């Protein structure tokens, strides 16, 4: 059985849990991370020298980096509907996953820490404003894409890309600041709520 190391509230762990739900994969999960077993322990570092969750153990195969993990799970366990084999379709999925992990992720990092987590180290007003503006800019890009597809981000059907993007949209709506109306994003958020995996793992944490 698959083993997932990481606390269930972590956004990156939730990517993996949601993917397992979409693929109907059973798993065991162990709590690691802030508030639980520390990832600085030698046993954890032997699996991931970056001391970060999640870590996947599939028999004697060990993998870290959440997007790599969910790509592996889809490829290994019959998830072609989530991660197409056809190169152009797969590239579109990868494009949006990589965009979330780089551009979108970086934009909301400071604002989320300041406004949602109330981190004392993230309370510079100018930095908060800059982060909110950058975040809004990238969400407008997502709005344009979803308005064009009228469904999901990479294609007309749900794909692996919607898992990290969907979790980021959850953070957008859960972080308190003045936001523009993004009707296509709001409709997408409601669309995701119809999926059992999202109901289980999409809105259950802010870490």
Give a short summary of the structure:
The protein has 8 helices and 4 strands, in the order βαβαββαααααα.
Given helix and strand content, the structural type is alpha+beta
What is the element string, with H for helices and E for strands? EHEHEEHHHHHH
Total beta strand runs: 4
Beta-strand content estimate: 5-15%
The rounded Rg comes to 17 Å
What overall geometry do the principal axes of the alpha carbons give? globular
**DSSP helical segment count:** 8
Largest pleated sheet: 4 strands, mixed
How does the SSE layout of this entry go?
Elements: E1 2-5, H1 11-23, E2 27-30, H2 42-45, E3 55-58, E4 61-64, H3 66-76, H4 87-116, H5 125-149, H6 162-174, H7 183-192, H8 196-201
Parallel strand pairs: 1-2
Antiparallel strand pairs: 1-3, 3-4
Helix pairs in contact: 1-3, 1-6, 4-5, 4-6, 5-7
Please explain how this structure is put together:
By secondary structure, the protein is of the alpha+beta class. It is 54% helix and 8% strand. The chain is built from 8 helices and 4 strands. The protein has helices at residues 11-23, 42-45, 66-76, 87-116, 125-149, 162-174, 183-192, 196-201, and strands at residues 2-5, 27-30, 55-58, 61-64. Strands 2-1-3-4 form a 4-stranded mixed β-sheet, with helices on one face. A hairpin with a 2-residue loop joins strand 3 and strand 4 (61-64). Helix 4 runs antiparallel to helix 5. It is globular and about 45 Å long. The mean pLDDT is 95.
Keywords:
4 strands, 207 residues, 8 helices, 54% helix, single chain, four-stranded mixed sheet, globular, alpha+beta
């Amino acid at each position: 059985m698959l083993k997932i190391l990481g606390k269930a509230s972590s956004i990156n762990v939730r990517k993996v849990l949601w993917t397992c739900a979409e693929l109907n994969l059973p798993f065991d999960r162990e709590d690691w991370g802030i508030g639980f077993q520390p990832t600085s322990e030698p046993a954890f570092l032997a699996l991931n020298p970056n001391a970060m969750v999640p870590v996947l153990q599939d028999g004697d195969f060990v993998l870290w980096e959440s997007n790599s993990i969910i790509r592996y799970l889809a490829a290994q366990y019959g998830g072609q509907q989530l991660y197409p084999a056809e190169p152009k379709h797969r590239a579109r999925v990868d494009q949006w996953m990589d965009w979330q992990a780089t551009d979108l992720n970086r934009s909301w990092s400071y604002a989320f820490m300041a406004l949602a987590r109330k981190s004392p180290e993230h309370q510079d007003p100018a930095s908060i404003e800059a982060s909110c503006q950058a975040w809004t800019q990238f969400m407008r890009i997502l709005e344009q894409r979803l308005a064009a597809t009228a469904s999901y981000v990479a294609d007309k059907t749900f794909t692996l890309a919607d898992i990290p993007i969907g979790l980021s949209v959850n953070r957008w709506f859960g972080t308190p600041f003045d936001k523009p109306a993004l009707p296509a994003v709001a409709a997408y958020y409601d669309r995701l709520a119809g999926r059992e995996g999202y109901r289980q793992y999409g809105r259950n944490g802010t870490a």
